[in-house]
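Task card 7
Instruction: Convert sequence to structure tokens.
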Amino acid sequence: MNEYDMVVRGGTVLDGSGAPAATQDVGIKGGQIVGVGQLSGRGDREIDADGALVTPGFVDIHTHYDGLATWAERMNPSSHHGVTTAVMGNCGVGFAPVRPDDHKLLVELMEGVEDIPGTALYEGLPWAWESFPEYLDFLDARSYDMDIGTQLPHAALRVYVMGMRGAQREAATDGDIAQMRKLTAEAVRAGALGFSSSRTLNHRSITGEPTPTLTAAEAELVGIAQGLADAGTGVLEMISDFETLDSEFDRLMAMVDVSGAPMSISLGQAGRNPDRWRRILGKIDAANEAGRTVKGQVAPRAIGILLGLTSTRHPFMDCPAFRAIADLPLAEQVQALRDPGLKEQILGQVESGSGYKRIWVVDEQFDYEPQPEDSIAARAQAAGCSPEALAYDLMLQQDGTQLLYTPIINYAQGNLDCCREMILADNTVMGLGDGGAHVGIICDASFITFLLTYWGRDRHEGRIELPRLVKAQTLDTARAVGLNDRGMICPGMKADLNVIDFDNLRIEAPRTVYDLPSGAGRLEQPTQGILATVVSGEVTYTNGQATDALPGRLIRGQQG
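Output:
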């Protein structure tokens, strides 16, 4: 008999600790790493990793696969980027706990906040649960291409306890808060990794209503935090507009103080106040100096939206002449839009403006740090046409599937210097990729591959050491949510790995696929260069192609 179930042989190992790379073998048995070094024993399966990087599996702590995980086995697009652990239940939205009469309300909230088609959710969600522990039991009976963990979402909890009073953002009574505290402790004891909430006006139901948690008072937040303290474990994930920075930050720190739990807070550069993120980060740094554990959750590039006929938005969607054909199949839309008369009509109805200075065409070599001279405005000026006319023609390319890109967050100065600063900050953690969400307008699950390729290889100035980048997406993210059994390549750790042809690692252009329930579309963005992904000692993907293995399971609570 062989000594190991698998040996990944002769790879350049970046172990996740931040240490320099070393040529080593990795031995796996029983789903765990049992040997690292020059191993003489053989494996039942051997992977030749000579010339390739070997990293821990990537841990993505900010996804929204809450619906997908109830009907699908593959958490795409994250699994195409070497993710072996995904954490969902972020931003306070999710589908448990829930009373039968509130299914529609939670679907409308998820559809609005996270741009997941309601048609897919109505058809796909089995609703085989009411309580949060029952939701976990349902997930626990399923198999996946990666491990998944989830958090208790504040909006679902609030509506479950308060009904329409909660949905309409009425103040919670003492009795309401006591019930939320009890249910929070129950959820965490059953296996929730923690609790999440949203306090931003950007999060609205598809009906336009703000999220139920927007104005929750400090007493409610502290009561829920006491539920984590009762359970004795868990993490907190929050997003806020911080319109009143000092008082709002103090509210969040009250949750940390009561619960004793670590907290992560979404952090990005807003265009209307480009330096405010530094003030928030300063508050985070001060909180850590005071003995708390608080991280800013950051992104490695701009959070941008994709525009086109196959996405949720494009520049001409509100024109009456376009709305007349908006419900046609794509091929018929394209045929109609190629008519010069309709083009003239639509261009006559669209508002002109300077926005095209910040819109670019996405191709296979797309630079996510795009330059002004490549914008649609600059290209239109060079071609002697209006930017609206150029955008119109570009959208019809590739049979109407061509996408345009405009950065929204982290691009106020026209570069990604702020992202570099956030990545290198002492109290930040990688996140915000939103895998599974914004499926018709954003495809940022590719953040992980971008982090490694752009900051570790391709940027002309300001590259970051690759061992540090790998650590940021493995050990650091795992520890941020209490998963101490993964994120490093060393004996005793979970056997989650990636084998990567780093020189040829690249992100493909995003495209729309139609594989959601009801045939709804979603954006997908595969990679090239990940030779193998291993979850619990089983190969789940080779060269980007799925195997039959589905070793991923629900993570119940913090590990290790």
